[in-house]
């Protein structure tokens, strides 16, 4: 909002507006605020959250001196929407910016088209920086912005200073020079740097300078420090990487030395900020918040990934399960009633702005806020009145997640997928890993939560995806084969699910004979096809009977053999089918009889053309 006002007056007048209000940095009515945001940091990545592989002594120390939230959530499973929530206190669905910028484009192999999103945080939205600036604060941005480019950067959204923030979601380089590989474009404010300097360290150096200046001026300040770490590309200081030994650690656990080293540098940064605040005598009047923009990257996405494991939480970044939404959140400051305490109250990104407003006398929130102040929890252990949280992600994620929405109320969580209306219900108190879908057992609870979610979407004006009229599913390859990967299957039933790369990449949890898997595929060259499937089955679990059905043809039947493990996939020759017409067709896997605990796992189905004699 202030950016619009300043745009109407001269530069000198703007300076006058900024320097009119003077407040001592020791005034408890105007405490300093430091908000540190990690990028793609998982909820289980810090030592104080249970990690045994990563080294985070400074963040652990911060938690010991503050309050740690065990059920903190990001506003979205990807970055830019969560930053909207942090900056405005409004849900990304209300603002309309529901995907990372510029977002994943529509594709012919996706059944739905995404809703259009603004390519920047609109200037009319009041930001946390603008709110504090109006209260006489110096406002400093150091790090990743990713909420708009020229005309919509930090300087237009309430910040006096911007270092390194631009429209992009990844740094131009993690090592100096901090510029694009081609051309002469540098990250803002980092044009001069010692060769080989590490970005996380340099951003921290800049923060040290700013805290020194603010302490001298005795003016209250807001330092927003959204790090690029630990986002891909995986780049860390080699001397730190070499101190982590990932050998003999089984898959599915935290074991990435590069990621661990990136996180160690991030932790060291937090330690330096805390030490500088102490050195300047500001600790008794400074609030420090640490959190992340979404869950940890737990799928393969570029070299040296997955970055981390969010276990026991399910999946990670890009997914609407707990691994994608749950994040660390630590708050340290003069009003923490019980240092070292842990709150299990569900909190979310949008809560930060009203919480900060409650600390600063005279600060003015926008009329619409989707978050609540956490001051009662922080200063007195008071349980917040809110008991319901919502998410809306109408997009396909690069990590494999599909368009959907979530409502969480009193420990119940409903996930609703927009492609086919599938609903999954979980009791998080007893099932943090979301392994037991209770939708069939609790139809009344599903109905209640689905109604709440639908009403909420309407109330915030959430934009929904549309049917892709040009949808071409699983198109026949030019040389003839048709490949149906597990990741493209649509499941019907309760427990069957796709378990993503890199550890699984399979249709698994096939423990109910009623659950079925479906694909659509597109044929350009009809004919006779030999059908095969990559099937895995655990020791002693063989004997289930399954049908593989193309359209309405009689099913090809398989008696599932013991392959030595559910992830020990073996190709199964199932027989041949004749497809007489080009166009779209259907494929289904339907169990007939389950012999033991689980039917099987399936990684892939192939239809290979049979050459004419």
Task: Provide an overview of this structure.
The protein is of the alpha+beta class. The protein has three domains: 2-98 and 126-362, Alkaline Phosphatase, subunit A (3-Layer(aba) Sandwich); 402-466, Arylsulfatase, C-terminal domain, CATH 3.30.1120; 482-609, Jelly Rolls (Sandwich). It has 13 helices and 26 strands. It has helices at residues 2-6, 11-19, 57-65, 79-88, 92-95, 128-134, 199-217, 238-241, 257-279, 322-325, 352-359, 375-380, 443-460; strands at 32-38, 67-73, 112-113, 138-142, 161-163, 221-226, 286-292, 326-332, 341-343, 347-348, 388-393, 404-409, 412-417, 423-427, 466-467, 482-485, 490-492, 497-499, 506-508, 516-523, 527-537, 545-550, 556-559, 565-579, 583-593, 601-609. The strands form six sheets. Strands 1, 2, 4, 5, 6, 7, 8, 9 and 10 form a nine-stranded mixed β-sheet that branches. Strand 18 and strand 19 form a beta hairpin. The longest helix has 23 residues, at 257-279. It is elongated and about 85 Å long. The termini are far apart. The model is unreliable at 1-23 (pLDDT under 50).
């Amino acid at each position: 909002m202030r950016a619009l006002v300043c745009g109407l007056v001269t530069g000198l007048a703007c300076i006058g507006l900024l320097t009119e209000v003077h407040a001592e940095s020791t005034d408890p009515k105007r405490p300093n605020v430091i908000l540190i945001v990690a990028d793609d940091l998982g909820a289980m990545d810090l030592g104080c959250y249970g990690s045994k592989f990563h080294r985070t002594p400074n963040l652990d120390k911060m938690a010991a001196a503050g309050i740690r939230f065990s059920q903190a959530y990001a506003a979205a499973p990807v970055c830019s929407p969560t930053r909207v929530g942090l900056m405005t206190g409004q849900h990304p669905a209300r603002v309309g910016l529901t995907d990372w910028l510029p977002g994943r484009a529509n594709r012919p192999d996706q059944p739905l088209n995404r809703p259009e999103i603004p390519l920047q945080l609109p200037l009319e939205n009041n930001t946390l920086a603008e709110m504090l600036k109006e209260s006489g604060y110096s406002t400093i941005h150091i790090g990743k912005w990713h909420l708009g480019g020229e005309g919509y950067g930090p300087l237009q959204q309430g910040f006096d200073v911007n270092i390194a923030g631009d429209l992009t979601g990844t740094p131009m380089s993690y090592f100096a020079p901090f510029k694009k590989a081609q051309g002469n474009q540098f990250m803002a404010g980092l044009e001069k740097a010692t060769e080989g300097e590490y970005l996380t360290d340099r951003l921290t150096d800049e923060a040290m300078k700013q805290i020194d200046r603010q302490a001298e001026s005795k003016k209250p300040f807001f330092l927003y420090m959204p790090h690029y770490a630990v986002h891909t590309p995986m780049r860390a200081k080699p001397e730190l990487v070499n101190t982590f030994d990932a050998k003999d650690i089984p898959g599915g656990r935290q074991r990435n030395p590069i990621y661990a080293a990136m996180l160690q540098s991030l932790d060291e940064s937090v330690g330096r900020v805390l030490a500088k605040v102490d050195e300047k005598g500001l600790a008794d009047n400074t609030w420090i918040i640490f959190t992340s923009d979404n869950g940890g990257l737990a799928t393969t996405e570029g070299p040296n990934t997955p970055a981390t494991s969010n276990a026991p939480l399910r999946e990670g970044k890009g997914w609407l399960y707990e691994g994608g939404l749950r994040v660390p959140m630590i708050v340290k400051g003069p009003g923490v009633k019980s240092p070292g305490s842990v709150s299990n109250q569900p909190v979310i990104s949008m809560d930060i702005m009203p919480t900060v407003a409650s600390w600063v006398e005279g600060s003015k929130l926008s009329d619409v806020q989707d978050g609540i102040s956490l001051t009662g929890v922080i200063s007195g252990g008071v349980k917040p009145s809110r008991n319901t949280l919502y998410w809306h992600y109408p997009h396909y994620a690069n990590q494999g997640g599909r368009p959907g929405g979530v409502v969480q109320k009193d420990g119940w969580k409903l996930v609703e997928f927009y492609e086919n209306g599938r609903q999954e219900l979980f009791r998080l108190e007893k099932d943090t890993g979301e392994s037991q879908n209770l939708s069939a057992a609790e139809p009344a609870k599903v109905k209640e939560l689905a109604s709440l979610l639908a009403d909420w979407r309407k109330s915030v004006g959430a934009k929904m995806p549309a049917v892709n009229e040009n949808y071409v599913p699983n198109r026949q390859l030019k040389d003839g084969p048709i490949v149906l990967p597990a990741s493209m299957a649509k499941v019907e039933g309760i427990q069957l699910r796709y378990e993503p790369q890199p550890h699984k990449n399979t249709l698994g949890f096939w423990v109910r004979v009623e659950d079925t898997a479906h694909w659509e595929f597109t044929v350009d060259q009809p004919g006779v096809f030999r059908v095969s499937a990559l099937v895995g089955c655990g020791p002693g679990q063989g004997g289930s009977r399954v049908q593989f059905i193309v359209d309405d043809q009689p099913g090809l039947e398989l008696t599932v053999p013991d392959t030595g493990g559910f992830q020990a996939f073996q190709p199964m020759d199932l027989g041949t089918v004749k497809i007489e017409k080009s166009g779209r067709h259907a494929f289904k896997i339907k169990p007939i009889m389950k012999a033991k605990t689980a039917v099987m796992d399936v990684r892939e189905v192939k239809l290979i053309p049979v050459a004419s004699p």
